[in-house]
Amino acid sequence: MDVTISDDSREPLHLEVRNQPKQIMLTLVLIIVGLVALYFYIGRMTFWIWVLAAAVPIVAIQALKQMFDRGPCLIINEEGIFDKRLKMGTIHWSDIKRVYMRAVAGAYFICLDLSNSAQYLSRQPAHLRISGPVWRLYDIPPINIKVAYMDANPDELFELIMSKVEGSRSEEVTARI
After folding, report:
1. Which of 7, 30, 50, 80 is in the most buried spot, having the most CB atoms within 10 Å?
2. How many domains in the chain?
3. Torsions phi, psi of 56, nearest 5?
């Protein structure tokens, strides 16, 4: 999917981005094959093989849920960004202070620093808030858009979000004057 940034302000922005569940399942199969090969190579179940093996059912359940969910996981419109996976509602353009991209092990994250992040994080279920400290180890803030396994180019999506945030800032400045 190509993301096109239009200079025509008469046309309202509405972009829907979907997951690619087949790619998720292929990755899961490769992880399982890798775990089996690692087991046979080492010859026993080490602590880390057990940890990775325990994560496989969790990832499999998530992948199956995404396979049967045909709706978009990310919607970008004039109001803001709605990422269904974050479970915090629409993030309004005016609430975004800074946008930057990080890559961790080939996965891209569009990171969002919000002026009122505590308010948005309080909307998330507890099981999602628990992962925040883990992501901070990789310098990823808790409010981020994981672009892996989506039908959008990470760079184009990042540019689109940056342009909307900058546009929102210029509208705020104009409104103040």
Report:
1. 80
2. 1
3. -60, -45
